[in-house]
């Protein structure tokens, strides 16, 4: 029977810090969702489950065929492999063509293996995946969403027993997400789904949340998980607040008792000096007061210790991580009204309507459309002088392009050096403050870019493009990809108050709705 069981899994970083310890995970349900903040170790845990990475402690039992989808940029982006070759049908297609041209060689018939419909099935598949390219086109010509759908389809076609999916909806448009949801619901095996996509997580039977406290399971889909998680978090926070209030009361009582004791001692000293009471009586009263006060102090100190112990116990049950914020530069906005213009743009006029727009100083534009319609191509054209000439695009200001694959980042540099190298006028202290805002504090700023998770890379890239010394037109190609839900909301809030212009590509309508968009440019099918 297919099984994937992880027992007492631990992973230690090169710094000596434990990313997670003693994790237990078993796929007992059909679809298991795995959530957690960026950098919590979800992708590392997935690589341990697949065997690509060895744990520092614990073991993984695997039974059955396992197929994996990775969130990392695909090697197909830079390969010369054709779509047919990737689908594994190129040899059959060559044999079919040879037979159609009159070949009678037995070798060609053996290669075809009576699969006379191979070409037609592949063409129908391309239409189903909304890929308007030839089977002989290179995979590197596909858009991010088209490539994701092709890779996911290939996984399902392998008929594995267990699917491990790491952020599979990154780059997918609304139709692509629904296609994936339908495939997940129809899949007969077990699925482990790492995602920040709320719609996708609602398909899960159980949600496992990875945090600094370990891995905790919640029955039900995302909404039920969120409800239970928030109730637990609020209850814990209330208990901590109550203990803090109790601590202040005890400290105030200690202070009040000390003041009263001082007052009584002063009164006794005055009575002693006046001689109104016998000395032996005064000494007895003083001794009695000291004993009573000593007992009261001991009792109150014990109360404080018990309170502190309870407080530390409860705080140890809180997740690590301070509140994060994206601080986008509030640079002076370019006063020219016509920053850029796009006239009759289309990557393929037989399939997509042309679009035109004028970009002005205060514009926050949402560029929308299905996978393959040319959104990324348009942003690349805006960012490239050569592209502007070819596409008939005019741009009067500097642009900064944040693409889907973190091309701005140098994997062999630290986060701090990467940010300062990109923004040379940024002082080290300011760079550290910005990085701290998105969760990188103290020595973590020296972490190499290559060691960052997808969400951490995106946070760094957003800081880089938004803190240029000039006031550029920001071209943001799905900047919400890889980000956890809390980080998405904070980035959207930062964009809504950003004074400069930007063009945003995103398929997350919640994110778009919170980002302060005031114009929409949609590339529609003919």
Describe the structure.
- With 526 residues, the chain is α/β, with parallel strands linked by helices.
- It is built from 17 helices and 17 strands.
- The protein has helices spanning 42-50, 83-87, 90-100, 106-112, 118-128, 144-157, 174-186, 198-201, 222-274, 279-315, 375-383, 385-391, 415-422, 428-437, 454-466, 485-497, 509-514; strands at 3-12, 18-26, 31-35, 57-63, 66-69, 162-166, 190-194, 206-211, 214-219, 340-345, 355-359, 364-369, 393-395, 399-402, 473-477, 502-505, 519-523.
- It has a six-stranded mixed sheet, sandwiched between helices. Strands 14-15-16-12-17 form a five-stranded parallel sheet, with helices on both faces.
- A hairpin with a 2-residue loop joins strand 8 and strand 9.
- Helix 13 packs parallel to helix 15 (454-466).
- InterPro entries: AAA+_ATPase (IPR003593), ABC_transporter-like_ATP-bd (IPR003439), ABCF (IPR050611), P-loop_NTPase (IPR027417).
């Amino acid at each position: 029977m297919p099984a994937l069981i992880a027992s007492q899994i631990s992973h230690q970083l090169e710094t000596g810090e434990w990313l997670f310890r003693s994790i237990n995970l078993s796929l007992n349900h059909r679809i298991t969702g795995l959530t957690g903040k960026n950098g919590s170790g979800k992708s590392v845990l997935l690589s341990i489950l697949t065997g690509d990475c060895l744990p520092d402690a614990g073991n993984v039992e695997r039974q059955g065929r396992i197929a994996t989808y990775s969130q990392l940029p695909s090697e197909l982006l830079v390969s010369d492999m054709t779509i047919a070759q990737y689908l594994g049908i190129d040899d059959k297609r060559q044999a079919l063509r040879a037979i159609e041209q009159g070949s009678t060689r037995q070798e060609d018939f053996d290669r075809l293996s009576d699969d006379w419909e191979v070409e037609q099935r592949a063409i129908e598949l391309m239409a189903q995946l909304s890929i308007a390219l030839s089977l002989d086109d290179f995979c590197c010509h596909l858009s991010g969403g088209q490539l994701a759908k092709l890779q996911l389809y290939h996984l399902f076609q392998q008929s594995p027993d267990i699917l491990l999916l790491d952020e599979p909806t990154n780059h997918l448009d609304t139709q692509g997400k629904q296609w994936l949801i339908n495939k997940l619901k129809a899949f007969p095996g077990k699925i482990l789904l790492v995602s920040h996509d709320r719609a996708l997580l609602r398909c899960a039977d159980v949600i496992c949340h990875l945090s600094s406290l370990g891995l905790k399971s919640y029955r039900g889909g995302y909404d039920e998980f969120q409800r239970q998680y928030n109730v637990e978090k609020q209850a814990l926070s209330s208990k901590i607040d109550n203990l803090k209030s109790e601590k202040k009361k005890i400290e105030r009582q200690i202070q009040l008792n000390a003041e009263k004791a001082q007052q009584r001692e002063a009164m006794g000293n005055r009575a002693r000096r006046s001689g109104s009471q016998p000395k032996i009586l005064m000494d007895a009263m003083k001794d009695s007061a000291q004993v009573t006060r000593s007992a009261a102090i001991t009792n109150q100190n014990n109360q404080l210790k018990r309170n502190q112990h309870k407080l530390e116990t409860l705080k140890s049950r809180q997740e690590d991580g301070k509140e994060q914020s994206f601080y986008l530069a509030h640079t002076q906005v370019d006063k020219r009204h016509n920053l850029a213009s796009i006239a009759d743009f289309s990557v393929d006029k037989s399939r997509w309507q042309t679009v035109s727009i004028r970009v002005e100083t205060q514009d926050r534009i949402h560029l929308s459309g299905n996978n393959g319609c040319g959104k990324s191509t348009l942003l690349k054209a805006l960012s490239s002088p050569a592209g502007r000439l070819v596409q008939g695009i005019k741009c009067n200001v500097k642009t900064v392009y944040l693409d889907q694959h973190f091309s701005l980042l140098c994997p062999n540099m630290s986060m701090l050096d990467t940010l300062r190298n990109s923004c040379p006028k940024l002082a080290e202290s300011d760079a550290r403050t910005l990085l701290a805002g998105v969760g990188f504090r103290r020595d973590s700023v020296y972490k190499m870019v290559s060691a960052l998770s997808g969400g951490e890379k995106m946070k760094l890239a957003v800081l880089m493009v938004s803190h240029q010394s000039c006031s550029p037109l920001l071209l943001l190609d799905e900047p919400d990809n890889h980000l956890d839900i809390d980080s998405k909301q904070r980035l959207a809030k930062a964009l809504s108050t950003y004074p400069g212009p930007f063009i945003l590509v995103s398929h997350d309508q919640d994110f778009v709705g919170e980002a302060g968009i005031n114009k929409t440019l949609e590339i529609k099918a003919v």
